[in-house]
Design a protein that fits this description.
With 164 residues, this protein is an alpha/beta fold. 38% of the residues lie in helices and 21% in strands. A five-stranded mixed sheet has the order 3-2-1-4-5, with helices on both faces. Helix 3 crosses helix 4.
């Protein structure tokens, strides 16, 4: 995992968009560092490429994220796959097209976790009727939650204030 941004008293809250890249679909989630929350947002078709990036540009204009988070799909044993290469290319394209910081997060088991959340809550995210059966936006929310959890673990807490 790349080095996470360091938190300090001067660090302002950030809005984040996360992507669960797939060959057919890309799940998108929205979150922020203030509440350390993530929620499924939408599903984008991976092809055609020009429409994919036009839709992402629209989301970036709407939500004005400070950084983007992309799931990095690895095999269960941690080895790279063809989808890993495609997701890394997608992350580089985001960085190049939009000039935003892009963080990669190990997304192993995020789809399984998303399916478990959906099964437990019956929730599919913002576009459940239009994208019935797709867990990609929820998987993007899981990826973003993992990033936010890791970010929270790297933040240093100020020393407790003594009252005596």
């Amino acid at each position: 995992m790349p080095e996470l941004p360091r938190s300090s008293a001067q660090t302002r809250p950030e809005t984040l968009l996360a992507f669960d890249f797939g060959v057919r679909h890309i799940g998108v989630a929205l979150g922020n560092t203030l509440s350390a929350s993530a929620r499924p947002l939408t599903l984008i078709d991976s092809a055609p490429t020009d429409q994919r990036f036009a839709r992402i540009a629209e989301l970036i204009r709407t939500w004005q994220p400070d950084r983007l988070v992309v799931g990095r799909p690895l095999d269960e044993d941690g080895s790279l796959t063809e989808t890993t290469r495609l997701a890394e290319r997608f992350a580089n394209q985001l960085r190049g097209r939009f000039g935003l910081a892009v963080e990669a997060v190990d997304e192993r088991f995020s789809s399984r976790e998303a399916q478990a959340i959906i099964a437990a809550t019956g929730r599919r995210g913002a576009h459940s009727v239009q994208h019935k059966g797709h867990d990609d936006p929820m998987a993007a929310a899981v990826i973003l939650a993992q990033y936010l959890d890791a970010l929270g673990r790297t933040q240093s807490s100020p020393p407790p204030v003594s009252t005596s």
